[in-house]
Amino acid sequence: MRVTRYIVCTILAILVGQLNAQENYNIYFGNIHSHTSYSDGSKDSLKSKVKTPAQAYAYAKKSEHLDFLGISEHNHKQAGMKSKANYALGIRQAKKATENGKFVALYGMEYGVIKNGGHVLIYGIDQLIGWEDGNYDIYNPQFDYTALFQTISSSPNSFATLAHPEPDHFNELRNKPYSLVADQAISGVSITTGQFNSKLTDYSVKRPLAFYSYYTKLLSKGYIVGPTMDHDNHNTTFGRHTASRTAVLAKSLTEADIIEAYRANRFYATQDWNSKVSFTINDQPMGSYVKKSSSLNIQALVSDEDTDDEIKSIDLMYGVPGSELAPKKLTSSNEEMLNYKFNLETGKAFYFFLKITQKDGDQIITSPIWAIN
After folding, report:
1. Is 0.85 surpassed by the pTM of this model?
2. Are 169 and 210 spatial neighbours (Cβ–Cβ below 8 Å)?
3. Burial profile 173-211: b = 16 or more Cβ within 10 angstroms, e = fewer
4. Which residues does 193 contact at the CB level (< 8 Å), separation at least 6?
């Protein structure tokens, strides 16, 4: 039985490798929500001796199944950003810590406050955005998220994700009509986060998908977004308190290619630190927009080098962008692969994504593929 299982997993791994090679993408695992002493993180630095971004990247390089780390410092003094000079220093430390092909260090900001707003992770803008006198490079009114999204969308090679979005966060997104400017700025939505104050380093923390409904709500309104899993660590854990990761499909392990993958929605959220997912429609990967095709060939393959991580189900979810209706399950498979044919009528548009559950309870949610005929 174990031999059979090994053969099946080997075949699937080869197939996944072939599909990813065909698309010229590799799969890399990481986290883009963490903090150091440059804002309100590194709370245990007296014991851990890890305080600066440079020290955090060095620590993260030794974490298991962590190809990239993003440090997203809070952008204002109330949350520890004492000087905009620290933001510039963090950018330089990230670039120095990056080893192309081995590890990518990203440095960004977590913009905003919870009350009357929400937190936005921003990368690819090397200047601090803020509202406090003397503590910003780019001014943005504190609660003006429309202006913030305009700044991000007009900045080449930048992207944003929504951090721990509660139902009352980002009122201009959830409770108002679709915004093209916001859609151009936002690439992802965190579907789980934390435990922010954990000091565990045994990869044992598993959090519920508390913000999954926020993610699907934005999909139903027409936003082009994918799901992420954040760590939001404020202690010296950097990839070690949880096995959850965001997996990206990128051409290579470089800062430019990781950012490009986020901008293109080629990523998925996974509670398993090394499960590889191939999800295509008409040979186009997650994050794609399939146009002018009445026949959709939907394929999914899941592989994992840990042979005890068996698949319980692969649910193919679908919905109508702009309908504001929750997505539904179209079909499912209890094996490592799924194949489905879908006839797309003229004038119709749908989005499709995978909701994968392993027998140990770990869940994987992919970015959608959108299709319109």
Report:
1. yes
2. no
3. bbeeeebebbbbbbbbbbbbbbbbebbebebebebebeb
4. 33, 163, 164, 207, 210, 211, 229, 230, 231, 232
DSSP 142-194: TT-HHHHHHHHHTSTT-EEEEES--TTS-HHHHSS---HHHHHHEEEEEEE--
- What mean pLDDT is reported for the chain? 93
Of how many residues is the chain composed?
Answer: 373
Distances (CA, A) of 92 to 33, 95, 96, 126, 247: 18, 5, 6, 10, 25
Q: In the prediction, which pLDDT does 172 show?
A: 79
Which whole-number Å values give the CA distances from 159 to 53, 82, 154, 187, 302, in the listed order? Answer: 20, 24, 10, 6, 27
* Tens digits of residue pLDDT in 213-260: 999 999 999 999 999 999 999 999 999 999 999 999 999 999 999 999
Q: Residue type for 119, please?
A: H
- Spatial separation of the C-alpha atoms in residues 70 and 58, rounded to whole Å: 13
Q: How confident is the model at residue 23 (pLDDT cuts 50, 70, 90)?
A: low
Count how many Cα atoms sit within 13 Å of the Cα of residue 2 in the half-sphere of its side chain: 3
d(C-alpha 85, C-alpha 173), whole Å: 32
Given the DSSP bridges, would you call strands 369-372 and 289-291 parallel, antiparallel or unpaired? parallel
Does the bond joining 184 to the residue before it have cis omega, within 30 degrees of 0? Answer: no
Give CA–CA dist 70/306, Å, rounded.
26
Domain boundaries, given as residue ranges, for the chain: 2-8+280-372, 31-265
For residue 349, what is the DSSP state? Answer: E
Give the least confident one: 9-23, 170-184, 252-266: 9-23
- Cβ atoms of residues 207 and 192 within 8 Å: yes
How many Cβ atoms sit within 10 Å of the Cβ of residue 357?
Answer: 17
Percent of the chain, pLDDT > 90? 88
Cα dihedral: 260, 186, 320, 244 (round 10): 70
Give the CATH architecture of domain 31-265: Alpha-Beta Barrel (3.20)
Note the CATH number of domain 2-8+280-372: 2.60.40.730
CA distance 204 to 227: 21
Residues in a beta bridge with 248: 28, 267
pLDDT at residue 81 tops 80: yes
